[in-house]
Amino acid sequence: MTDTDTGPFEIVDPAFAGYLLGNAELETLAFGFRWIEGLVWMGDWNCLLFQDLPRNRTMRWSEDQGQSIYRAPSGHANGQTRDRQGRLIACSHEARSITRTEHDGRVVTLLDSHAGKRLNAPNDVAVKSDGTIWFSDPLYGISNDY
Question: Model-level pTM greater than 0.90?
């Protein structure tokens, strides 16, 4: 691959051109979505979970089984990650909360308010190495799923 041959990639800022691997191929794993968010690899399950946000469902993809629905409805879940114990942590626009899926499948609400006020629309989430949960809480997402 030359500097001018970027294949299916569009490089907007030349500073990122050095990160393009010439031997990396694009492969479509799943299709039929308006947009997806919250990709999280579940190594012990050998699958990828991701949010089909407009359709209010969490999808699952594995090499063996392809794509399937993991959870529907998902509470218009958006960003998600795993905690130090391997549990799924997700942001819910609909419930305006941060949830955790326990190992037995139960979904528990970890947080839905702060300082006496409801959360807006939790969007992205990360778990720090010390177990603290960091998330964004923008205004958009409250009024609709877009």
Answer: no
Cβ neighbours of residue 46 closer than 8 Å, sequence gap 6 or more: 62, 63, 64
Neighbours of 18 (CB within 10 A): 7
Residue 25 DSSP class: P
Q: For the chain, report the end-to-end CA distance as a whole number of angstroms.
A: 38
Pull the structure tokens for residue 142: 């409250």
Note whether 79 and 123 are within 8 A (CB): yes
Cα 129 from chain centroid (whole Å): 19
**pLDDT, tens digit (0-9, with 9 covering 90-100), for 31-63:** 899 889 999 999 999 999 999 999 999 999 999
Domains, the chain, ordered by start: 30-135 (2.120.10.30)
H helix count then E strand count, the chain: 0, 12
State the Cα–Cα distance between residues 124 and 92, nearest whole angstrom.
Answer: 10
